[in-house]
Amino acid sequence: MLTAIVILSMALTPLAVGALRWMLPERSVDMEGIPKAEGLTGSVLMIGFDRFGQVASQPLLARGVDVSIIDMDTEMIQSAEDFGFKVYYGDGTRLDILHASGAATAQAIAVCVDDKGAG
Length: 119
Prior knowledge:
The chain has 119 residues and is an alpha/beta fold. It has a domain at 44-111: NAD(P)-binding Rossmann-like Domain (Rossmann fold), CATH 3.40.50.720. It is 41% helix and 13% strand. The chain has helices spanning 2-23, 51-62, 74-82, 95-100; strands spanning 44-47, 67-71, 87-89, 108-111. A four-stranded parallel β-sheet has the order 3-2-1-4. Strand 2, helix 3 and strand 3 form a beta-alpha-beta unit. The chain is elongated, with a radius of gyration of 19 Å.
């Protein structure tokens, strides 16, 4: 009996999570004071500025490389600004955002995301 309950709960959990996501309203993003990625011209385009992006940017910035940084986390963008970093809001998986971020003219594109499932 217990085995049947465990198997049933394992089968129904993904369905319940999917139904919950469908029923809940989408989380709105507060974009006030957040610069959008438009007309960027850095020689390096960095996508993502979590822990990995912050560490990867240090040697580039220390050498005076012009780095354009985009991320989707508005809270992180605001806190990065407090430390002197200019991070723009943009989804690095969207082609229009990549064009606006200067991907066509960048000498290098660094994908610096912590999410293993991204990409």
